[in-house]
Design brief:
Glutathione S-transferase Yfyf (Class Pi), Chain A, domain 2, Maleylacetoacetate isomerase (chains A, B), Glutaredoxin, about 50% helix, homodimer, EC 2.5.1.18 (chains A, B), about 220 residues, globular, Thioredoxin-like_sf (chains A, B), 2 domains, alpha+beta
Chain lengths: ~220, ~220
Amino acid sequence: MQAGKPILYSYFRSSCSWRVRIALALKGIDFEMVPVNLIKDGGQQFSKAFQALNPMKQVPTLKIDGITIHQSLAIIEYLEETRPTPRLLPRDPKKRASVRMISDLIASGIQPLQNLSILKKVGEETQLTWAQNAITSGFNALEQILQSTAGKYCVGDEVTMADLCLVPQVANAERFKVDFTPYPTISCINKRLLALEAFQVSHPCRQPDTPTELRA
Amino acid sequence: MQAGKPILYSYFRSSCSWRVRIALALKGIDFEMVPVNLIKDGGQQFSKAFQALNPMKQVPTLKIDGITIHQSLAIIEYLEETRPTPRLLPRDPKKRASVRMISDLIASGIQPLQNLSILKKVGEETQLTWAQNAITSGFNALEQILQSTAGKYCVGDEVTMADLCLVPQVANAERFKVDFTPYPTISCINKRLLALEAFQVSHPCRQPDTPTELRA
């Protein structure tokens, strides 16, 4: 076992890092943060030291309990299994399926198609349209799914892993100037979640590595 | 509760559908298959009837126990929670984290970047290179990660959800003519898995909707 606090390798603007920061905040887990700047020095995630830690060269990465975990949802599931309070997955397997379905819709169906490394490949001219298409095509589906799963939040009235995926994806959508008129359910849930402390302390505008001009 | 067998909406060549077909085979779950041809008629997933079932317009989709689940990993996790034998996730939370990390690496980090709808957007001229880059960049990381997690299979000596993701992704890599020289661990595990009955009966070359010329 590794002694000491968990260490989160994070970038203020990474939506996948934000998911994990919310989980840590909700569960009241004290941790140390090591910022990895995905832009500076050509991307610090490409340094030899970081690649040795995470061969995918991505944040978030969490060192905890003597192991190193990559992939935000794998990290959140591990936290849920080892630090179960408060729950981020409902007890009912059918509701858990809804939570994971929404989480995966965002984590596999939207985020990877609009992340920094893909947009670089797509090229500057078309990247805004590309990102908007990826997000609206996912949000069109999500808006419809939420109409049958949502209560106060994405699935029922408790905050779940799905909500940890929703809020950072909405923030990305706002950065890419997506029109939210077709997404009243998404907008309403997002607003409710942003009122919660765990979503505020973990917000990209309030991280140790947030540039001064973006702080709020 | 819905009466009758689970219904899997599947496409023979969809790597995400194959993941679920392996899970169903391993767990000995009897099911009905409804083929959804992603090419024919401009893509049957875009039909109104299918969109009503899955607003993401993707396979796999599973109707089971009165609910409809999309997203392959959410489906597999539900099967694991409701039909736990044989296990597809180890008991030890740290090993479960490894399984989910590898599964997510493939399901979020590789597959979405080389699937049919993205390659269409990328355009015919560059799509082979695009797909190869997405796969090799993920496999470079995976090869390294497997060196510390693998036994006979991806994580230890039991078949897990990670293996259900690996084999279909390797098949895609082969279709895109990826050079496997740098991936001895991936190749070796893939070969072992393909020898198992559940991976054979669920294989794309042996589905009800496999075109005659691709059957084996």
